[in-house]
Amino acid sequence: MQLRFECSLTGEEFVRQEAWRDASLPRCPPRPKGGCGFARHGTYERVSPPGTRIARWYCPAGHRTFSLLPDCLAARLSGTLTEVETVVRAAERAAGLEAACQGLRLDIELPGALRSVRRRMQAVHAALHLLKGLCPDLLATCRPDLDGVR
Predict the structure, then answer these.
(1) Per-residue pLDDT band at 137 (split at 50, 70, 90)
(2) Which of 60, 79, 81, 96 shows the smallest number of beta carbons within 10 Å?
(3) Strands 2-5 and 53-59
(4) CA–CA separation, 92 vs 150, rounded Å?
(5) What share of the chain is helix, strand, coil (3-state, %, to 5)?
(6) How does DSSP classify residue 24?
(7) Which stretch of DSSP H or E encloses residue 40?
């Protein structure tokens, strides 16, 4: 399970400072009174930004790991939130997804780039729709895209 690691660093700063070493989870989330053998369980690597590691803990009683994902990284997507926003904004402003992909993902072929952009757009647009529902007075007249909500 991924939990929030409150952190004001960018992805590059997080890597440069090896900030995962400062991550702390003092007690087991489902068993706050302890007794389950909860302990640090090393780190795992993320692809982007290069060199990123995520701190992890393990609860033997629940057979479950917990990781602290810093605020700058996207959950369930590779990369930083800024990178995800850049991709979605480019796709929203482009004449079409294929046009957006031409400049965004030169390292992979078009079908893979389309899947990557669609995944990011679906995640961001779902979050924006939820946000509109949670804050109807504030966002009722906004379009559910990045420019509309901004």
Answers:
(1) confident
(2) 96
(3) unpaired
(4) 13
(5) 45, 20, 40
(6) -
(7) strand 39-45
Q: What is the mean pLDDT of residues 7-34?
A: 94
pLDDT(106) > 80: no
CB atoms within 10 A of CB 114: 17
| 68 φ, ψ (degrees, to nearest 5) | -105, 110
By CB neighbour count within 10 A (0-12 exposed, 13-18 middle, 19+ buried), where does 101 fall?
buried
Q: Measured in Å, how far apart are the chain's first and last C-alpha atoms?
A: 30
Closest residue by Cα to residue 125 from 78, 92, 93: 92
> 47 burial class (0-12, 13-18, 19+ CB within 10 angstroms)?
exposed
- pTM for the full predicted model: 0.81
Residues, the chain = 150
Would the pLDDT of 50 be above 80?
yes
Answer whether residue 55 shows pLDDT above 90.
Answer: yes
| DSSP H helices in 2-150 | 11-16, 81-93, 97-104, 110-134, 136-139, 146-149
Tokens of 133: 């529902």
Q: Which residues pair with 67 in a beta bridge?
A: 2, 56
